[in-house]
Every structure is written in C-alpha cells, then in structure tokens.
Amino acid sequence: MTLVLDVQDLCTSFHTRAGVVKAVNGVSFTLRKGEVLGLVGESGSGKTVTGFSLLGLVDAPGRIDRGRIVLNGQDLVGLPERELRKRRGRDIAMIFQDPIATLNPLLSIRTQMTMALDAHASMGRAAAEKRCVEVLEKVGIPDPRSRLDNYPHEFSGGMRQRVAIAIALLHNPSVIVADEPTTALDVSIQAQILHEMRSLAQETGTALIWISHDLATVSSLATRLLVMYAGRVVEEGPTAEVLNNPRHPYTRGLIDSLPATAEPGKPLSQIPGTTPSLLSLGQGCPFKPRCTYATDICDTAPALSAVTKRAWRCHHPLAMEGAA
C-alpha cells in the first residue's frame, strides 16, 4: 500500500517556568493508505500531543523541537502557519473528543460544512450542498438534506459526532486523526461509529490514527497498535499480536486491567503507582518504579528492539509464547 505519512524522531516539548516537559520524546511510525493505526496509553502518555503535533496545533509554550512529519512526500515541520492551514482539512484532518466544543452552536450545519469546503475548494452552491449531503449520508445521518439547516443542539451526542466526522471527510484527506471521539458516547453508539469508520477507511482509502486509552475499543478497529508511555513508544506491532503476546510489561498491565479479563467476584487488576512527572524522568526506563520486572539495568534507557513487524523498548521483555 502507498505510504502517506512518515513520522521520524518526533519530539514535542512544553517550555515552562518549572522546566521542560517532554510530552513527545522520539516517536516514529509510518502510515499507509487505508490503514487504521491505534495509539494507546494512559492519560499523560503523549497520545493527544502526538496527534496535535501532526497538524501543527501545538500552542505556546509547546513546540516541536525536532523530527520529521512527512505527509504525501512533504515535511510539515517548519512550514509557515499559512502553508499548514492549506493542508489542514484538505490533506490531514482531526476529529476531536467533544463534538459540542468542535461545532459552532450559533451556525447551522450547512453553514459550517460550507465554510469548511470554501477553505480549500471553489464550488457553486448546488455542488457544495451535494457534497455535504454525500458525506452526511456516508456517516449515517438520516435524511441528510433536511438536517443541513439544523443547529448542533438539535442533534444527539452521537449524531453530533457523526457530523464532526462528516466535516473531516469533506475533502477526502489522506489522514484523519481521531482523538478519543467515542469516549463520551454510550456503548451502542460507539459500536456503530467504529463500524462506520472502519468501512470508511476501506472505501475511501483514508488512513486513520485512532487515539484512545481504551484497548478494547481500539482492538476492534485498528490493524496496528502503538503503545505509548511517558512520551515514548514502548511497543508496536499488529493488533492481534500485541494483544495476544505483549512484550512490554506496561502493555501486559493495560491488557490485564481490562474488565473483560477479570474473574467474576475478584478485584480488577491494576498497574501499581501513577504515571511519572515528565519534568523529571531521569535517564532510565520511565516505567521502572511501577514494573515488577525492574532491576538495576533499568536505570539505563532501554533501546528499541525489533523482530519482523514487532518492536518494544524494554530490558526484560516478556516471552513471546505463553504471555497471554
């Protein structure tokens, strides 16, 4: 498949009075046409900042310190804001977690979608309406033509999120970054949207980066997983292989903490401790204080090991066989 996104050694920091917060620290991955990549980890692991960095949406005091974000052959890092604006929405789009904060409550859906179209394309009123109806129908909005003149408050939470997805699809972007877009929705609506997003990726060829803390949700959608901790990728590989045979103890902990894996009547498993402060990570493995496998060698940073399509960052990787 065609390579659409190549991220290499991405480092994004927030330069505060207390010190430098390395929110994204040397993240690298590739994305191909139609592929769904899951980006998972606890809150504070760097998932959302990674997504914002891809679109150049990191505000001061944050900044991209180094790295490359090559989208369709062009490096986005260092581009002037005017050039980035030309690509947002057209070549790469984002679906945010809360649709009510994304959509303008004072403007009709027709107006908001037409504005998004006008930002990157010049078309007549009839053509614009036709395109709006097409994408609304594609994401499952019933009677889309009549709903164009509705306002966001006239839609349910699930329907508002579908509208946000439709806006992201208007220009058939090469990549869509979805930042936990189903977190606030009930389980049945989540399942519908996940099914529709999987189908849209297959039909349109749009590559999708799905950011979530919920391994169960991501496992039903993504073909490949990146597990992040303290701003770093600690494990990656095909979804089924990562979930069935995790190599990193942190990945194992995330899987064990899923309610579905718990025995009835017994307490849920949990990873001990809390995520570390990104202001004072030190030189060793950031997961050491919470890891039951840690030894003195973990005071040095582990290198990224790789076998075929799998990669992990650990001095004491779990065995491939029998780990699940």
How many helix segments?
A: 11
Mean pLDDT: 90
CATH superfamily membership of one domain: P-loop containing nucleotide triphosphate hydrolases
Compressed to H and E, one letter per element, the order equals: EEEHEEHEHHHHHEHEHEEHHEE
Coarse morphology: globular
Q: Would you report the number of β strands?
A: 12
The second-level CATH architecture of one domain is 3-Layer(aba) Sandwich
Largest sheet report: 8 strands, mixed
Helix content: 25-40%
SS-based class = alpha/beta
First and last CA, distance: 31 Å
Uncertain residue segments: none
| CATH domain class of one domain | Alpha Beta
Query: Any idea what the radius of gyration is?
Result: 21 Å
β-strand amount = 15-25%
CATH topology of one domain: Rossmann fold
| Order of strands across the main sheet | 6-7-8-3-9-10-12-11
Secondary structure: elements and pairs:
Elements (H helix, E strand, L loop, with lengths): L2 E14 L2 E14 L3 E5 L6 H8 L7 E10 L2 E2 L5 H7 L4 E4 L3 H4 L6 H10 L6 H14 L5 H4 L9 H13 L5 E5 L7 H18 L2 E6 L2 H5 L4 E6 L2 E7 H6 L4 H8 L48 E3 L2 E3 L12
Parallel strand pairs: 3-8, 3-9, 6-7, 7-8
Antiparallel strand pairs: 1-2, 1-4, 4-5, 9-10, 10-12, 11-12
Protein name: ABC transporter ATP-binding protein
Keywords: ATP-binding, Cell membrane, Membrane, Nucleotide-binding, Transport
GO molecular function: ATP binding; ATP hydrolysis activity
